[in-house]
Amino acid sequence: MEKELEEEKNVDSYFDGGLLQLIGWKIVGILITVCTLGICYPWACCMIYNWEMKHTVINGKRLAFDGKAIQLFGNWIKWLLLTIITLGIYSFWLGISLKKWKVKHTYFR
Question: What is the pTM assigned to this prediction?
Fold first, then answer.
């Protein structure tokens, strides 16, 4: 058991993305969202999260993201309707719902 834990500690976890790349992707995401009046926010969200996962390594394994904007758009509509129906109460769960969706579509390569 100790040997397994020691081997796990020797495996690197890191993020190899650059600051300028991140800034560039975020600017593109903001421009897309603003120019489409928020309709393409799911696409911008998927684009940025995909870049983040491509540059993340955990225990020596690179992550990948297979979520599609159209899938997120469907959920986004559902979450918007739930927020309206519950008079805004569901909005407290929006962040966790988005996180669950992202994790569901993230895997090791």
Answer: 0.81
For residue 42, give both structure tokens.
Answer: 């799911």
The strand pairing partners of 58, in sequence order, are 61
| Contact status, residue 97 vs residue 79, Cβ threshold 8 Å | yes
Residue boundaries of the structural domains of the chain: 8-108
DSSP helix/strand/coil, 47: helix
Q: What secondary structure letter does DSSP report for 109?
A: -
**66 φ/ψ angles, rounded to the nearest 5 degrees:** -115, 15
SS (H, E, C) 3-39: HHHHHHHHCCCEECCCHHHHHHHHHHHHHHHHHCCCC
In this prediction, residue 11 carries a pLDDT of 82
